[in-house]
């Protein structure tokens, strides 16, 4: 009986943890059944209603009453466009755009037009160009002059008629024709207007592009309708793309029917008469604030809120006033930014105190990422030691070099900033002046920026005139600023690549593998790439070509390829020289190809693949950028594996090797860019051809072209290990780089240490 009484209690204790789950399931099932009964009842009542369907509720569209989206929702319904290809037409491969922005039809944000005249082109227009033009993504100047001399750094459109109305008419036509489909917003201003570029750009980011916008300083027409307004041209005005597209068909009618003296009134009347849109100074919660300058105004003394909040200021009478306005507004903007930084830092301190880490979690400087914490000794970021005269970590690997150029300017600025911060912190009690930099350390932390530690010998002076010399250590950080996207010209992957392969007698053992890879990865795949061989004969071998051609085997391989691929021709060029200078060889090749040829200067150990050729096309831009890839060099398998089986995994193909930064043998560039740089080099060295023996193509572009030199690691270029032959007749620098490339390509330090350890063990036994 006792056991029977205990049995229900044991069951309840076992089910107690599951009771909340069972109660939740029961409650959920009950509510769902109850809701289903309500829905079923409502549906029955609807079905029992006789006669035609009930009319929709007031304000609802007819489609909405039937469960379909209304007429305002057509753009949100997906449409499946069936694919159809005419069987009678030949198939043509569709070349899609490289960037999704182009394919989706995205537009640029803002286009700016500045109206200028003959009297102000070289004065106020130049001042606009020097102050705010570089802040706008695209800015053009429009004038009525017929043959105006364009100031340096300005893009000018001359219409040939100085009548104000005609200038406005032609400007609107030009903007619609050339930029109407590329930009969302169009800002039109005069050259006697100072506009805060950053404020204008911020304004358009808060406005919807789906509305017809005519925004500026609204003014009444003289003797016109009290409700109609036009935007005053002196303070600038903003037009949306949709409004420009609707206005363009009526411009001719406006020119013939509307009479006005002022171009801004003419444009405002045209927009009102044909589109029914009036100028507004406030839209979607955004205000277009302006300020009218009085005569003899001193911007430095203007403290009114309307002035400081102004987006546009007018009229600006001369260049000096334009520069003074720019300086004053820059100071105002800088003060606002510093105040925002202080407010954010205070908020960070207050919030960090509430975190589990407490005040100890506040990083220095406040708001900047914490220093990088290495997880192993291989991730430790080393410090570079420097003084005011020398740097003890040089780019060429030497232990000591003179501090010059950008590094010297960087050190001077950091020391000056450190003394300035100390004075700001301790004044008026103490006044510091620098005597000497005792020690300086710096390192680049990719998570936060450049870090500095300075040991300064300072002289501290008190208010009473007493002075004392002391040493003080300070730490500074130059944080990474806002990331800037550099605009690049548009390129495609359809460009033909011309491979150039220089060959010497020492390279004969590797030619067969190069040609096999070229045939498999380019000829079989029908890639748009051609090959030119450059046979470099020694003078002794050149004299014996009739009896024994050292490149006969290579020529036979080329003949076999041409037989296998009937539409392929692989030409070769024979050169006789003792010193195969890369520049001299490219001079010969350059003259035999068109100026728009894209060259890929390869080496015999290069394994060509489509992935790299596409990157060669994309990273090389005519008259803009050349590409020097850093290939991956595999280590000596005899030292790395020591008789073991090599790794065959595709994921580890970049494991046992290194990127050879000493090699500049591979390069991608356009023939036109090379010819331009080579012309400047020829004018510099005159007839001293021996200088070319100490140069590579990289040096030509580096010193004699204004192009971007893009040098980056290239995992698509993998070279098997081989001991290169270094020509001692080349320059000392080129020979030294070749030797270093061979030495560093043997194996890693760990592999070399293991090989030495095993050798010592073998010798000891």
UniProtKB/TrEMBL annotation:
Any GO MF annotation of the entry: glucuronosyl-N-acetylgalactosaminyl-proteoglycan 4-beta-N-acetylgalactosaminyltransferase activity
Pfam families associated with the record: CHGN (PF05679)
InterPro entries according to UniProt: Chond_GalNAc (IPR008428), CS_glycosyltransferase (IPR051227)
Disordered: annotated segments: 47-79
Domain of life where this protein originates: Eukaryota
Keyword set, alphabetical order: Glycoprotein, Golgi apparatus, Membrane, Signal-anchor, Transferase, Transmembrane, Transmembrane helix
Record EC number: 2.4.1.-
Main EC class the enzyme belongs to: transferase
Protein name (record): Hexosyltransferase
Cellular component terms (Gene Ontology): Golgi cisterna membrane
Location in or out of the cell: Golgi apparatus, Golgi stack membrane
Membrane topology listed for this record: Single-pass type II membrane protein
Feature: compositional bias, Pro residues: 50-59
Annotated Gene3D superfamilies: 3.90.550.50
Stated family: Belongs to the chondroitin N-acetylgalactosaminyltransferase family.
